[in-house]
Amino acid sequence: MYHGKLYYEEGNDVFTIEEFIDRCHDVAFKGSTTWDAQDEWTIEATAQKVGDSYVTPPTFSKHKISKQDCSDAAVITIKIINRAASSLEVEGSWAEAGETYKFKGTLV
C-alpha cells in the first residue's frame, strides 16, 4: 500500500492519498483534495485499467470542509509513470463539472 501527496499543476492545491493499492488490473485509493486552499473533499474509489491508465467511474466526493452543499461527480484518471521498489511515480487528473485538473507526484 502506498500514500503521499500529489500536486496540481496550477495553484497550491494538493491531492493527499491516504491509501493507494496497486492490483495491476485496477487500483483502489482513499484520499482528500483541497480546492482553492479553502475547501476540502474526501473520496474513495476503485479505478479500472483502461489502456495505460486507471479510470474511475463517475464518483461523488464528500465534503469535509466546504462552502458548497454537494459535489459534482468526478472522474479520476491515474497513470503510473514509474514503479520502483518502494514507490510509484504517478500523474493524472481530476475531472468534474466540465473542468480538468492535472496532478502528479510520488507515492511511497
Any low-confidence stretches, pLDDT <50, length ≥5?
Answer: none
How many individual domains?
A: 1
CATH class bucket: Mainly Beta
- Write the CATH architecture name: Beta Barrel
Which structural category fits the helices and strands?
A: mainly beta
The chain-level mean pLDDT equals 90
The main β sheet shows up as: 8 strands, antiparallel, barrel
- The overall strand count is 10
Strand order of the largest sheet: 1-2-3-4-5-8-9-10
Order of helices and strands: EEEEEEEEEE
Distance between the termini: 8 Å
Coarse morphology: globular
Using the coordinates shown, work out and report the CATH topology.
Answer: Porin
Q: Can you give the helix content as a percent range?
A: under 10%
Approximately what portion of the residues adopt beta-strand conformation?
A: over 45%
Radius of gyration: 13 Å
Helix segment count? 0
List the helices and strands and how they pair.
Elements: E1 2-8, E2 14-22, E3 26-35, E4 39-50, E5 53-55, E6 59-60, E7 62-65, E8 73-83, E9 88-96, E10 99-107
Antiparallel strand pairs: 1-2, 1-10, 2-3, 3-4, 4-5, 4-7, 5-8, 6-8, 8-9, 9-10
Task: For this entry, give a set of tags.
108 residues, mainly beta, Porin, 8-stranded antiparallel beta barrel, 70% strand, globular
Write up what this structure looks like.
This protein is mainly β and 108 residues long. The protein has a single domain (2-107), classed as Porin. It is built from no helices and 10 strands. It has strands spanning 2-8, 14-22, 26-35, 39-50, 53-55, 59-60, 62-65, 73-83, 88-96, 99-107. The N and C termini lie close together (8 Å).
